[in-house]
UniProtKB/TrEMBL annotation:
Keywords, comma-separated and alphabetical: Signal
Name this protein carries in UniProt: Uncharacterized protein
Signal peptide: 1-16
Length: 145
């Protein structure tokens, strides 16, 4: 099961991670379908007459087998996901993602700094005086010293 050792490029890791996401969604869908069928069949079994009892019991047995196969598939999925998380390429992908996020945040701060760097102190003071905080009943507040 050393599949992930062969994954060397980040592109391969992304593709593999996406295929795991698809597999997880498919497993979840199958689990939901089995659960619905199970609930419906058990409800029918409680109200069934003698002639349909055996048929419904057989359906429940098949659903239990299907559930067991689904649990085995989920185990394989979990082990593959665990191997992926341990791979150096996946860790590198997470580092790059964190660096990208940090760069975006720094860029946003720089944009804000640039926005205020172009304004003089006098202009900033004039804008602040227009702010509603400094206004009292439509008149400017006077600072007493």
């Amino acid at each position: 099961m050393q599949i992930l050792i062969l994954l060397s490029s980040l592109t391969q890791v992304v593709r593999f991670a996406n295929s795991l996401i698809d597999a997880r969604n498919e497993l979840q869908h199958k689990a939901d379908v089995i659960q619905r069928k199970f609930v419906i069949t058990k409800a029918l079994l409680c109200k069934a007459d003698r002639s349909s009892f055996d048929r419904l019991h057989q359906q429940i047995y098949k659903l239990e087998l299907e559930q067991k196969r689904l649990e085995e598939d989920a185990f394989v999925y979990n082990s593959l996901q665990y191997q992926l998380k341990l791979s150096p390429a996946y860790k590198k992908m997470l580092e790059l993602g964190a660096c990208t996020e940090k760069a975006k945040q720094c860029e946003q701060v720089d944009n804000i700094d640039d926005e205020f760097a172009d304004i003089s102190f006098e202009e900033l003071l004039a804008q602040e005086k227009k702010d509603s905080f400094w206004q009292k009943n439509g008149k400017s507040r006077v600072c007493s010293s």
